[in-house]
């Protein structure tokens, strides 16, 4: 269980877990936030190894062990509840969560997206940006709703796209910004600085209290 001074979160990841590592390094290690569990749809995900190295409990929910997405998400939600987590952090979790999962954790699920939403939602946002020839793209942290990258925006940061950059260079820069902005946004939520507006669930109210 979490200590009274830290904010408990669960992180869901499908792959290497670089955003998870940024959260572990910047928040968990500083005890502002406690990662109380890391879950994955892939038992072999390197993110789970990162969690074990940080002495964080893990759980895997492979697709072929459940009748359907609803059943898997229900089991995953039960596990999340058992950890006492107050926030569900999607960090490279490559599965769509079901509407019932969103409803169960309404206003308590966040995601990071490699574009300035509402531009370039969905898959391969970096590829979409390059194809459109934009001069600026970026990173968005947002609450998750039933749509695809349509939830209320918490934080955004721009990334310039120089004309001579290739995809690898742009991906590296965007991911570096993700590693900065995602822990920052989670820290804001932990300090109570971020609330979904009661009068408009499409908007977020932010009140800085002096944290990073």
Note down, in words, how this protein is organized.
It is a single chain. With 212 residues, the chain is an alpha/beta fold. It has 2 domains: 1-105, Rossmann fold (3-Layer(aba) Sandwich), CATH 3.40.50; 111-212, Rossmann fold (3-Layer(aba) Sandwich), CATH 3.40.50. The chain contains 6 helices and 9 strands; from the N terminus they run βαβαβαβαβαββαββ. The strands form 2 sheets. The chain has a 7-stranded mixed sheet with strand order 3-2-1-4-5-6-7, with helices on both faces. Strands 8-9 form a two-stranded antiparallel ribbon. α1 (18-28) links the parallel β1 (7-12) and β2 (33-40). The longest helix is centred in the last third of the chain and has 24 residues, at 167-190. The protein is globular, with a radius of gyration of 17 Å.
Order of helices and strands: EHEHEHEHEHEEHEE
Oligomer category: single chain
Distance between the termini: 25 Å
Mean pLDDT, as a whole number?
Answer: 93
Layout of secondary structure:
Blueprint lengths: L6 E6 L5 H11 L4 E8 L5 H8 L4 E3 L8 H15 L3 E4 L8 H6 L4 E5 L11 H8 L3 E8 L9 E8 L6 H24 L3 E3 L7 E3 L6
Parallel strand pairs: 1-2, 1-4, 2-3, 4-5
Antiparallel strand pairs: 5-6, 6-7, 8-9
Compact summary:
This protein is α/β, with parallel strands linked by helices and 212 residues long. Helices cover 34% and strands 23% of the residues. The strands form 2 sheets. A 7-stranded mixed sheet has the order 3-2-1-4-5-6-7, sandwiched between helices.
From the structure above, extract its key features.
single chain, 212 residues, alpha/beta, Rossmann fold, 2 domains, seven-stranded mixed sheet, two-stranded antiparallel ribbon, 9 strands, 34% helix
